[in-house]
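Exercise: predict the fold of this chain.
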Amino acid sequence: MSEHQQSEALLKLIEQQKDVIRNLEKSLAESESTVRTIVSRLPHGFIVLSEDSRMVAVNNRVVEIFEYSTEELSGAAIDLLFPGVQAVTELPPNIELKARTKSGERRFVMVAVTGVRIQGRSQFFVHINDTTEQHKLEQLKRDFVNMLSHDLRSPLTSLQILLTMLEQGEFGKLESDGPKRVTNAKVSADRLIKMISELLDLEKMEEGLFKLHRIETSVSSIIDGAIDDVFDLCDARDIMINSQLGEYYATIDPDQIRRVAVNLLTNAIKVSPAFGSISVKIEQQGEALHISFRDQGPGIALDAQETIFDRFRQLDENRQLESGEKKMETGSGLGLAICKAIVEAHGGKIGVVSESEDNTEDGKGSEFWFTVPLL
């Protein structure tokens, strides 16, 4: 090959390399544009930080949350948004922080930090989820619970005392249907006070303020005591309770576990037909005790099973069999939520198994169960 031909071949190779580079640059630019578009449209805030914790890039959500422009944030230190935070390396991978906007407003945000090395340099990706509204809702909930406690429970308690005095004839004999009306009013007041107390208990449990008083005790005796507690309800409907309790011990809060058992038994009685039966069983499963309550009611639909332990969820009225008899009084919708909170505070689990998928097949029954660790 002549020198001229070699030169032409070399020039051709250079042009080919230029084409390859141009195509790579075009692909890289398109990829960068795609990444920018994706990041800008993320529902959460996203910040890229340099090694010295200065902002290299931010998305639109960060601009919305903090009220600064992209230009104002570019190159700024992270403590502009998070006062007191000098370097993201000081932070755990996930943490909730108090942030400051341009207008001086304080906001709560969940921050997740991921560190990477690019071309030998450290960079940090900061994911931001604004939780300010969630905090506001939590505060509204606390204010509402405090209102229930102070503004409603106290006058209701006074009313309850007054109705009891009327019922006992402290203010003279009531005429005509007066006693019946007073009794009905007292039942309603009792129910409201119980509902408020349950709501307050549930709030304490969910906030970790509800203290258990654990002792090593016979779980079998606790469940047997709960069965005694519902004897009158069973007797009124000729319902038999068949129990296999054995003799098992665990370190629990006996009053609270008894509360769970009474609640589950009461629900089972509500849905069982007259002259029916309820099965109660305790058995050891690994390092936990499994306590179950099986009724002969219509069962629970699958979709209802997923939410039945949520607050203000009541057993479907269809589960309360009529059979020509008077239905039992419905609860507050808090009982199962409280049961769940108590069991989980013990480190256990709670659930339900039901064969009915549409709430129409009578007699299928449901089995509510919970576990408590042995130790």
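Check your answer against the key: Residues 42-129 form a domain with the Beta-Lactamase fold (CATH 3.30.450.20).
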